[in-house]
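I hope you will forgive my troubling you with a question about protein structure. Could you please explain, in whatever detail you think fit, how the C-alpha cells follow from the sequence? Thank you for your consideration; the sequence and its C-alpha cells are set out here.
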Amino acid sequence: MAKKLTRVAKLQFPAGQAKPGPALAGLGIDMVGFTRAFNDATKDRDGDIVPVVIKAYNDRSFEFELKTTPTSVMIKKALGIKSGSKKSGQENVGTLSLEKVREIAEYKMKDLNTTNLEAAMKMVIGTAKNMGVTISKKEDGENK
C-alpha cells in the first residue's frame, strides 16, 4: 500500500534545538527521527529560528522543507534588539541601513513571492517599519 499524506504542518524551531513535544506529537510522526534530522540539517544556522514545513504520512514517516529565518528575527538580530516597538508609528527602536536591508532581502529571496531584489527590499522595509525601525537613506560608510 502506498503511503498517504495525512497532515502538513508549519512550525518554527531554534536551529539545532528541536525537541520532541506537543507540537510534533499531533503530527503522528517519528518525533525522535524528525528532531535528529532537523537538528543535523540546521546545526550550521547558529541558533536562528528556522521555519519548517513538515509533511506527515500515515506510516509515521515524514518529509520536511526548511525555510529562511523570518525577516523580523533577522532585523532584530541586525539591530541587536529583543523586540520591535509596541507603538510602531510613535516609537523608534533603531535604524537599519539600506545595505543591511539589501543583505536581508537577498537572503530571503528564495522564500519570497518575487524575483526582483527591489521588490524584496520593499518587503523587508515594510516589516521594519511595522516593527518601529527607521531606514537610513544612505548606504553604510556614507555620511548621514
Remarks:
- The mean pLDDT is 88.
- The chain is about 35% helix and 20% strand.
